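OP here, attaching both records as promised.
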Amino acid sequence: MSAKKVHKVKKEDVYDPQDVRIPSKFGGGVLKELVKREIPSKKVTHYALAYINPSICGVDNGRVLGYDNSHGFAHKHFMGTTVPEPFTTYEELYDRFQAEWQAIAVEFVNGEKS
């Protein structure tokens, strides 16, 4: 008898790109991103965005800014504090994260953050 082939159905799509290193002249640090979506609905089940820069933040493993939904709820990390943050869409959250980390980095480069 020949063995039956077992086809595994992919249940989620995982987007986990390489970390992005920010040059020091632009504030330095690292950007991290992870997104998991159900297939076929594309509903976001897990997300994590983080701007890590120990030169700006000495707590929370250097996480200056982050958004994720671990621990069972959507929340924001900022300079060692964590507060609930409502989730609307990943695209909206991503755009907000991009604007916020860039503003923080510019302030740091300009000497407005220590």
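Record two, same layout:
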Amino acid sequence: MASPKTTDMDVLLQLYQIYDRNREALLWFLHDLAAKDYSEYKAKYAGTSKERVSFTSVCGFFELSGVLVNRKLLSADLFFDVFNPTPYWERAKPIVEGMRKARPHIYENFERLDAERRQWAEKRPPKIRPKTRK
């Protein structure tokens, strides 16, 4: 793994600030988002509801992150050491699939980021190994 560049660290810190400002939305997304598909999402979270704003904020964060990682403007290793898009993508996927009927490219960088993170995790050994008793 190459050492991160100063620009990577600056970008990562800025992303973390965005993430931190949206903590409430991130927690809602993981624990309280209750829509099995796009139809249910539209029915439950209409217009400019707080929940719809939260959904857009979380997906937008990972979409932006995916653009930066995919275009090599931020090291994937550095990003994945801090963030894990997978649990968020798993919650978003059935909703996004419905959105794509009208907007085929929506959140494609988020989806790609999740796929890349899964491959990264498979290849990466754990940094900490459990201690064995003597």
